[in-house]
Design a protein that fits this description.
The protein is α+β, with helices and mostly antiparallel strands. It has helices at residues 3-84, 96-108, 119-131, 135-140, 153-157, 169-172; strands at 88-89, 174-183, 188-196, 202-210, 213-221. The protein has six helices and five strands.
């Protein structure tokens, strides 16, 4: 083989190696581009999944908000029905039997006339006496138990008019009227409880049982 042929063959091998190296490099670059493209696609898929998840969360939040509004509307509707069906009572208006007993009691102030009357009836008679300014009869509804007495009848009748109840709105239209009882070793107490419209607190009136008859505690209204 001639020297020139050897040189040509060497050059051919050199260029072939260069071409193969370039092909290999190009193939590696293509593989890297494919891998990067796949990585970008994965990131895009993740972003789309997050967007879908956030969209679902927003939809859930929107649905939840609508459910809350529906519940609030239902609650308001129920409250309106309760208010429209609410039974009102008056604590200064006596029924015929209570009015009869009030008149009998006023005649002689005999506590036995009050025997059998429940705490609500006694409470109503006391407030009725205040409403018609019959302060002498009003005092007779108080207990005579020394542990409860705070002032005399004479003092009671000399109290200034400003100390008397002037606003009877809390007694003329009440609802949810009921009685709570408390028993102790030697005494039994009762609390008349009621509510008034536009007030979110309860009103109470205190009584104590004296010889099986309900009498009014001093400072009964809280």
């Amino acid at each position: 083989m001639s020297k020139e042929r050897i040189i040509n063959l060497s050059l051919f091998c050199f260029f072939l190696i260069i071409i193969l190296a370039c092909f290999k490099q190009n193939q590696n670059m293509q593989e890297e581009m494919v891998m990067e493209q796949q990585s970008n696609q994965n990131r895009l898929d993740e972003l789309e999944a997050q967007i879908n998840e956030n969209t679902n969360s927003l939809q859930i939040a929107s649905n939840f908000s609508e459910e809350i509004q529906d519940m609030e509307s239902s609650i308001n509707e129920i409250e309106n029905k309760i208010n429209s069906n609410r039974i009102y009572d008056s604590l200064i208006s006596l029924d015929s039997y209570e009015l009869k007993k009030y008149g009998e009691f006023k005649n002689e102030y005999d506590d036995q006339v009050l025997y059998g009357l429940n705490p609500i009836s006694i409470c109503k008679m006391y407030l009725y006496a205040s409403w018609i300014k019959d302060y002498e009869t009003q005092y007779e509804f108080y207990t005579t138990d020394e542990d409860y007495v705070l002032w005399t009848k004479e003092e009671h009748l000399n109290f200034p008019e400003s100390d008397s109840i002037s606003d009877f709105s809390s007694y003329s239209r009440v609802y949810d009227l009921y009685v709570e009882y408390r028993a102790f070793e030697e005494t039994e107490e009762a609390t008349v409880v009621w509510y008034v419209e536009d007030n979110d607190y309860d009103h109470i009136f205190s009584l104590v049982k004296e010889n099986d008859i309900w009498k009014v505690c001093f400072l009964p209204i809280q």
